[in-house]
Amino acid sequence: FQGYPGGDASKPxxxxxLADFYDPQGVSGHKLLHLSMAAAxxxxxxxxxxxxxxxxxxxxxxxxxxxxxxxxxxATGTASTQADLTxxxxxxxxxxxxxxxxxxxxxxxxxxxxxxxxxAIIDTRSMEILQDGVGYSGSIPNDLAPWISWVNNPPSYPAx
Length: 160
Prior knowledge:
By secondary structure, this protein is α/β, with parallel strands linked by helices. It has helices at 43-60, 82-92, 140-151, and strands spanning 2-4, 14-15, 32-39, 64-72, 97-100, 118-123, 128-134.
């Protein structure tokens, strides 16, 4: 991916890899990655991004790190561009990693692009997708709560 770590568009546009979030020893303090896929035209995507901005500080203290990929621009079927991403960051005042995945080239195999946003909760110690789904539930903390509890205790299977 290409994007802005920390959602800071004042810094150089740079390569971002999901491997950047891999932390098998738990050194970063982040045990979960909440990865989302959005489109600039998608109303629920916009709502979810605004909610994430408000929640990020509290959830970071609980071991969650966030990243979001923008797949389409302001019209359905238009590949996202660096300009779209910069506008998205400014509009939402994002404070978490933002990146491009034009026309869902990388993550599109995980979901139906007609259903957005797509969200995945990933264990950063193994990069295992613990849960994924489409749509904005309206409660990111409720979606994450069982997984925060699970990763903060010795993991056992089956997962919640």
